[in-house]
Amino acid sequence: xxxxxxxxxxAAVLAADVAGYSRLMGADEVGTLTALxxxxxxxxxxxxxxxxxxxxxxxxxxxxxxxxxxxxxxxCAMAVQTKMAKRNSDAVQKIAFRIGxxxxxxxxxxxxxxxxxxxxxxxxxxxxxxGGVYLSxxxxxxxxxxxxxxxxxxxxxxxxxxxxPVRLCAVQPAMRSAATAxxxxxxxxxxxxxxxxxxxxxxxxxMSGDPEQEYFADGMVEDxxxxxxxxxxxxxxxxNSSFTYRGKAVxxxxxxxELGVRYVxxxxxxxxxxxxxxxxxxxxxxxxxHIWAERYDRALNDVxxxxxxLATHVVGAIEPSLRQAxxxxxxRKRPDNLGAYDLYLRALPDAFSGNPEPATxxxxxxxxxxxxxxxxxxxxxxxxxxxxxQYQRGSRREQEKDAALRHARIALARAGDDATTLGAAAFVIxxxxxxxxxxxxxxxxxxxxxxxxxxxxxxxxxIYAWAGSYEKAVEYGERAIRLSPRxxxxxxxxxxxxxxxYFAGDFERxxxxxxxSARVNPGFGPPLSVQTAALxxxxxxxxxxxxxxxxxxxxxxxxxxxxxxxxxxxxxxxxKLAEGLRLAEIPE
Length: 588
Known about the structure:
The protein is of the alpha/beta class. The chain has four domains: 7-172, Nucleotide cyclase, GGDEF domain (Alpha-Beta Plaits); 198-330, ABC-type transport auxiliary lipoprotein component (Rossmann fold), CATH 3.40.50; 336-451, Serine Threonine Protein Phosphatase 5, Tetratricopeptide repeat (Alpha Horseshoe), CATH 1.25.40; 458-588, Alpha Horseshoe (Serine Threonine Protein Phosphatase 5, Tetratricopeptide repeat). 53% of the residues lie in helices and 16% in strands. It contains 24 helices and 14 strands. Strands 1, 2, 3, 4, 5, 6, 7 and 8 form an eight-stranded mixed sheet that branches. Strands 9, 10, 11, 12, 13 and 14 form a six-stranded mixed sheet that branches. Strand 12 (263-272) and strand 13 form a beta hairpin. Helix 1 (21-27) crosses helix 2 and helix 15 (419-433) runs antiparallel to helix 16. The protein is globular, with a radius of gyration of 25 Å. It starts with 6 loop residues before the first strand and ends in a 5-residue tail after the last helix. Residues 175-188 and 319-333 have low confidence and may be disordered.
C-alpha cells in the first residue's frame, strides 16, 4: 500500500467465530473439526453465497465476510443462527456461532480488507452471546425499518482497542405475533381466522433482472393491498407484515398460520422496456389448494388499470357478491405521472420512520414528486410527516411546523378516500394544532373507506389518546396490531397504546406497551418517555433508571420544560407525564 493511493470503500463487515472453541477442541478435536466443516459446508457458506457475501478470510474457528448491503449481512446472519439452532437441538456436541456486524470504511489490499470497519466488527462479535447477532450503531441505522427483525438496544460499550464507545444492538427473530405485549416468536400461538374472508398479499417476485426495479414490484403489491383493503367485507393484512416474507421460500400454510388469514396472493412482475408481464395466483392457506391464477401482459402506461383488474379478479374469487361497481368506487386518487409515483415509493420508508435523519433523506424525493404532480396528496402527507418529525424531534423551528401543517392541509383537501393519506394528514393536524375535530373527521373518513388501513389506525390511536378518548385509542391500536402483526411500524400503535394506558392511569400496561414500541424501533424516542414515567409511578427503580438513561442517550436535550412546552396533547396530559418523569429524576 506504500507509494500509491490507498483504495477504500464502505462495506458491511460480518465477523463470526465459534463460542468456546478451545474447550470444544480440547474435549473432541476430530469431532469438533468434522462438525464445524459440515456446518460450514451445509449452512454457513451457502447462506453467505445466497445473500451475496464474499468470504474474505477464515481462521480455525471463524471467518470474516464482506457484504455490499447491511440488510443482506443481517439477513444472512439470522438465517445462519436460525438453522444452527435447529441443528444443535438434536446434536450431542453443540456448536454455537457468535456474529458481529459493522458498517464502516475499509482499506482494500488485494482480496483482503483492513481498517476500523473490520476491527469494530471483530470487537462487536467478541461482545456477542453464543447463538446471537450483534450490530454496531452504524449497521443498525442501515437496517432499521428494512427487515422484520426486532432489536434490543444494549447501550454503549467500550470495546478493546477502539478509541470511542460503540452502541450495540442485539438482533431478535421476527415476531410471529405482536398482538400481546411481551409475546415472543417461540410462545405465540397461530392467530385465529377472522369471521370474514381474510387475505395476505405477499411481495411479488421481481423477474426483471434489475434490482432497481424491486420498488416497482413493491408498488404494484402495495396498490393491490390498498384496493383490497377498501372492501369492508374483507380482512386484509397490512403491507409491512406481508413484506417480511420478501425473498424467502415460503410455505403458504405456514404464512396463513402466522398471519391468521385464509387466503394468500403471490406472484411475479417482469418489466422489459415499456411492457409488463404480471402473474398472480390465489391460494387457500388452510387447504393449500389453488383458487385462481392468471397472467397479464400490458403496456407500462396501463399499470394502474392492471392493478385494479388484478384486484377485481382476486376479490371476485374470494367474495363473489362484490361487484365491479365497488371496485370503481374504491379507486383512490393516483398521480398522473409515473415519475412522481416512483419518487414517492422510494421515499416512503424513510418518511414513515418517525426519526429525523431518514425524514431528511426523504424530503428531496417527495418535493420532486409534488413538483411533478402538485395534486399528489399522498406525497404532500409524507412531506407533512417529515416536517413534523423534524420539528418535534429536531430543530423546533417554527418554519418546520408551518410546513408540516401546510402540506397536511393540502393532503387532506386532495386525499379523497385514500386512508393512509387521510390518517397521516390527520395525525399532523391533531399533533401540531390539537384540531381534534378535523382530525377525527379525517380518521372517520379513512377507516370508513378502508377498515383495514394499518397506518390510519396507528395514527388514530395516538391522536385519540392525546385527545383523552382512551377506549377509542386502545381499540384502534389493538386493531392495527392484529391487522399487521409483523409490521415494521408496530412502534406506532404500541406508542398509542402506551399513551392511552398511561393517561388512563394503567401504568403497568403503559410500561408494557411502551417497551414493545421501543423494541420494534429502538431509535424512536417518544415511548421511552412514557416507559420511564410509568416505571417510576410503579416504583420499579432499577428499570426506571435504565429507561431514563436510555431516553437521555437517545434524546440528549430532553427536559421536563421542553416536554411541557411541546404542545402535544393537552396541558393536563403533559403535566401528568411530567410528574412521572420527575419521579425518575429527569432534568427540569
